[in-house]
Amino acid sequence: MSEPPLPAWPASAAALPDLDDAALVRLAARDERAFEALVTRHAPAVHRLAASMVGPGAADDVVQDVFISVHRGLRGFRGEASFSTWLHRIALNACTRALRARPSVPLDEAPEPHSPHDPARTGEQAQLRARLAAALQTLPPEQREALTLREIAGLDYAEIASVTGAELGTVKSRINRGRAALRTWLTRAGITP
């Protein structure tokens, strides 16, 4: 089976956001603007995923590592899975490496950005995020990974199964068990889930 033909190069870089991921991936092999369009499209989601797993303080470094890895591996990307699935797997691997490299840095101690609008609410939200981060760290890695992909990255169960290599039923079970464990932990911490 032959690879689909490369799309015609858009007359301007402004047309790049209109292309789907598959077309951008094929174009990125010959032009950095297409790669930049992929980064622009996916960096916010990768950052949310990284911040939830390694903390906001380390998320920027993880995102940089992810897109360096993507850039290096793009020519070898075969398209057997969607680009998003491949990207999330790379992001999870980068998060795991970051957690192993700095196991003594708790997620809940990372500084939160300050909001000039409502300092009291910002403090409450930071405290809640810190508790949620601490609760997530109590989960087994497989549950934390599946739950983060579902709740933070917004992937559906089949996509999570593809990213993690687990069976669909296993993914559902991990998410359900993770949610139950989080609910119990948060209730014990005095937070109504």
Automatic annotation (TrEMBL):
It comes from Deinococcus hohokamensis. Residues 111-121 have a biased composition (Basic and acidic residues). This is RNA polymerase sigma factor. Keywords: DNA-binding, Sigma factor, Transcription, Transcription regulation. Transmembrane segments: none annotated. Residues 38-102 form the RNA polymerase sigma-70 region domain. It holds the Pfam family Sigma70_r2. Residues 130-182 form the RNA polymerase sigma factor 70 region 4 type domain. Belongs to the sigma-70 factor family. ECF subfamily. InterPro entries: RNA_pol_sigma-70-like, RNA_pol_sigma-70_dom, RNA_pol_sigma70_r2, RNA_pol_sigma70_r4_t2, RNA_pol_sigma_r2, RNA_pol_sigma_r3/r4-like, WH-like_DNA-bd_sf. Residues 104-124 are annotated as: Disordered.
